[in-house]
């Protein structure tokens, strides 16, 4: 199997490295308009092929997978051409710049019996997989909220705002962990640089049963915070990705509600117990992701983070942008 | 000078203790409907007077200050009677349950030439006073944002939601630190207990010049977080009230925007430097607050946290509640 | 039952408060040479008796317990007189300035059928009791080491060095947690102020079976560290007393030693697993201690921290001082 | 310039990578007895030469520097042959297994007019260089103590104990930062595995003027601690190498000693002020080290970490081992 990686900028080299390390991958073809980048790739990854013309490469018979690591505005066009040429597609996050584009790609892939994989890398980390296991086991009880903060002094993107840059990570984790379907989005934000792109933003996502999710993304924070709180009736999780060890802590804490029969008052008390920080798998997430996609392609399985996952995230991103332009108005999904 | 403290529940004893420790205070009269609480007060604070009838006490000629530490729904009525009886008023936060009530009290106090002090205790801490000093000195540059998180596994109030319970702390800090006037509020939240009161909420406050403030308050968090980030063009502050020492950190960090003449592109880079954690004054905030109010009463000065400060906070609380009932709709202040 | 508390300086008031709160205690008599201190005690604890003449008080028939909170150099004399007068004795840590004194007091108490309680307060904290429970359960396996650090910018004692001031806390915890008997001590230290008292010191305590304990005590540290590591074959404990919550963490970590039969080499690997931070009891340790001692007195039980515990600690302190004067020479206990 | 790297196990590849990245280095020749390792090196570092016979390589005319990354027991022999062959030597830490060996190598290098560089990598980190700058500036005042803890669940060496494995890092930092000459060493430790090598140890190093240094090294700790405290009369440093940012904190704290004239007593008070965490250089230490050594070789300069630095560390290691075998006896250096 050969893999074409389109885009050899910031993230592309990570894809090349991880695809090369897969037993099933015979070789990688790196594509970029910039010949300097390709020269660098040839030096770093001895023996790989390179090309400045991705359109030629995606038509090659020996290429089975096309991995797209270009600016997000180009994802749709390249994925469409690749799917049309009969190739399975690995698309970086966010999948596309709009719901319409994502839906079209999903439909095209289905029609051609091809797989789309969206690179929501965090889903393949030990921490997120452990949280999925815990939530699925019922240990948290009924879920109350999902609260995420992802802030730092950021490298500025020139083409997208902080929501499209940072929120896909947390939205994809939410999409993976929560069974419920998000109903509506409200977002606020602000931009402080002349480019008109928000550099700080807050998203609220509403679900059924009073489940609420909230996201704080910020390129202007002096410290790096990557913290997610997940609260349930029985226990609660703190996931801190900046911790070297003990990234995940499960608190046997919660509230107890006693509604006395025939009585108006509700008695609410809190309950505290032990905290457990489970051992996490250490395998590199991107490597697991590449392995998983190859397995899906070879054995005709549905990827964990398929086009629908990608679409779910894009749908919220798109709605957030509408809401932010409308001063926090609630946008139904 | 004698001080009447109305309400001897959770917070009242702190007021009694701190007023008793002031040189100018001859004695304190503790008032509460509950005789058991009064008995406890007499035991703890030997020599104080007590009464179950506050209306009698506020009419006494020897009482100069009435301090109100009852549930918030009673603040207005008691303050109105006290001001009408010619007494200066110390009112716990939040000042009242509505803007209308707060405005009426302010007007009544002015007419009677009396002082209102709203107990925004945090304003009198070493950390907040140091932040004020730093911001006033221009060290942060132009302000970008004020972001605050105040969450824990909370004791549940039966009469107000989490916004009215926790947000006054942070809103009063914001009101004190920022020179600009808030323009509008958008809020979201959720309740998970049968009492219909939000136990988790998010507020966005909009200002001129793209300054944005945001508040996360939550009674259902397994860990205690009290963290405020304040970002400016030149440097940024992290204020972590759970830290025993080093509550305040000032980062010589920021972004640099270069707009090249005649060129479409804006170049944004970040800049990092030293971090300074200044020594903070350790005096108990409530003691300073009591001392400050007595000074204002005796020397006819305007309290730092007067009725207007209280009103500013109530205005945002009220607007938040409207917004939350309207799904995050932007409410102009 | 009446309790005489001798010494109303730094720690005495805590004893008075905690004895007063016991149901069995009718009243407390505070004794101090300094009448000003006694006046302060009468103001703080309304209704207590006071006296400048402790020798009269310990002879009173209505006094059952004498609690000694004077400088350590006076412990022996006052305890001896109290035991001779037929009173049970609560002695602050360290019990005495020498092994000889401690042994004499123990013998005197036994002869007179009286109880000695040494105030190793930490033994009554939730954290230390939980550690005892864990170690007793066998969860740690065989013990390897006990390592303790207790440093901060300290208030300087004028009569004892940093070892006698800070190490009794950790030595008493070690004495309580470890079943083995210490065999020998080696200590080093240094003094930097003209008074000739060490302000920084390191103690190593040797046990059988290669169990080793080490203590770092320091009055010149810019940060407060209170951290104990306890390592065993099966799991390991980190006890951090500066943590507000999560003071105790139990790591399912250790090493695995495989000695291949007939082969010279030993294969050592490490093993990592989950971490658990158990819920701890929050009751004030000193209150539990007072309650426990009264129970022992009334029901003729042996206190958990009796004269022998006090002696065990003094024996190591004394040996440490000899070792430090002899450049770290190993002193057999 | 060509560089021969002897030993392609754990650390060798880092040397190869960093030497290859130097402009002055034409190529690297990797030497190892194990052909599999060499094959791996050829794959990772395309274009490098490899050899199983280091003795041939060090005689090659085109080789100017020999870098030795073998087990420490082989350092002396290989370095001696390399120096005899006229090559400059880079030796991993610890330099040799004995003082005698280190002295002989230094003398041999001097005689042949060659450079020895000992790879005390930490000296080239931003944190240590900043500490040197601070101490040299006099900001700490007179030094009181140097206290270091380096513990974790360690990979076990089969040939050396925990002192020879971990302490060279901290001893080299101490040697670099402190101007004073160490006078004597006292050490204690324990071993818990059948190989007879200490896995936990404590070293005290004595200096003139009551300056004291202490080192805790431990392979059996459930958490990773890398913390150094340096105390002086004027301010104090905390260096925590596990911190991602803010590795260095300088506390404007200390003690003030007032000796009243004609009075026996000394009054000691402590003083607290601001804390500063300076920005640190981020360049990879090993890269700077390689660059520095090449500069020394080309321009005949004395390396910052030369043979004498290596010898200073070995001298303390050797004395520690003697002390530990003699139960903590003070060994004069």
How would you describe this structure to a colleague?
4 copies of one chain form a homotetramer. The first copy, chain A, has 333 residues and is an alpha/beta fold. The first copy, chain A, folds into 2 domains: 2-114, Rossmann fold; 123-283 and 315-332, 2-Layer Sandwich (Dihydrodipicolinate Reductase, domain 2), CATH 3.30.360. The first copy, chain A, is built from 9 helices and 17 strands. In chain A, strand 5, helix 5 (99-111) and strand 6 form a beta-alpha-beta unit. In chain A, helix 4 runs parallel beside helix 5 (99-111) and helix 5 packs antiparallel against helix 9. Chain A is globular and about 70 Å long. Chains in contact: A-B, A-C, A-D, B-C, B-D, C-D. At the A-B interface, strand 7, strand 8, strand 9, strand 10 and strand 11 of A face strand 7, strand 8, strand 9, strand 10 and strand 11 of B.
Question: What's this entry about, in short?
Answer:
The structure is a homotetramer of 333-residue chains. With 333 residues, the first copy, chain A, is of the alpha/beta class.
Query: In CATH's first tier, which class of the largest domain in chain A applies?
Result: Alpha Beta
Strand content of chain A: 25-35%
Number of strands of chain A: 17
In total, the number of domains of chain A comes to: 2
Largest sheet entry of chain A? 9 strands, mixed
Helix content of chain A: 25-40%
Name the strands of the widest sheet of chain A in spatial order. 16-13-12-11-7-10-9-8-17
Low-pLDDT stretches of chain A: none
- What is the subunit arrangement here? homotetramer
Q: Enumerate how many helices of chain A there are, as a single number.
A: 9
What structural class do helix, strand and pairing data of chain A support?
alpha/beta
Q: Helix and strand string of chain A, N-terminal first?
A: EHEHEHEHEHEHEHEEEEEEEEEHHE
Determine the CATH topology of the largest domain in chain A.
Answer: Dihydrodipicolinate Reductase, domain 2
| Cα distance spanning the termini of chain A | 39 Å
CATH architecture of the largest domain in chain A: 2-Layer Sandwich
Mean pLDDT across the residues of chain A is 93
The CATH homologous superfamily of the largest domain in chain A corresponds to Dihydrodipicolinate Reductase, domain 2
